[in-house]
Design a protein that fits this description.
The chain is of the alpha+beta class. The protein has two helices and eight strands, in the order ααββββββββ. A hairpin with a 4-residue loop joins strand 5 and strand 6. The longest helix has 21 residues.
Length: about 140
């Protein structure tokens, strides 16, 4: 290989790496985008959870109302849909890193997740162990 081809190869590789990182990062919502998207609105979606006493994964419906004052209300379907839903109250905010954080009572444990476009017009809350796909419904 000649000496002029080496710098060109490095430039192309660097450009490709930069492009792939920006494309990947472009899917994550920023702090202002998350606030504008959720404040005063309702997120409705689902996630997969292991059913009790079995290895089977089951879909669980979830609805979170994000009030403008920073409070929130979460309704989750029980594993057996015939048992209805349960509700938790808490608070929400977006931290400095641009992650949506919630604190639900009575556990009082803070959970922060990244928010991204899911490609189908909806969004996804991405945590360490779980991803929740959701749509935003105007109003609370």
């Amino acid at each position: 290989m000649n000496k002029t081809a080496q710098p060109m190869k490095l430039a192309i590789l660097t450009t490709c790496l930069f492009c792939s990182q920006t494309t990947f990062a472009a899917g994550w919502l920023t702090k202002p985008e998350i606030k504008n998207l959720l404040s005063g609105n309702t997120a409705k979606g689902h996630y997969e959870r292991r059913a009790q006493h079995t290895a089977r994964m089951v879909p669980v419906g979830i609805e979170i109302r994000f009030f403008r004052d920073g409070t929130a209300e979460k309704k989750i379907e029980r594993f057996d849909a015939s048992k209805g839903t349960y509700t938790e109250k808490g608070e929400w905010f977006v931290n400095k890193k641009g992650r949506l954080c919630t604190i639900w009572q009575p556990k009082n444990k803070k959970q922060c997740r990244r928010v991204k476009h899911s490609g189908n017009g909806n969004y996804a809350l991405v945590g360490k162990k779980q991803t929740v796909e959701f749509e935003v419904i105007p109003g609370t």
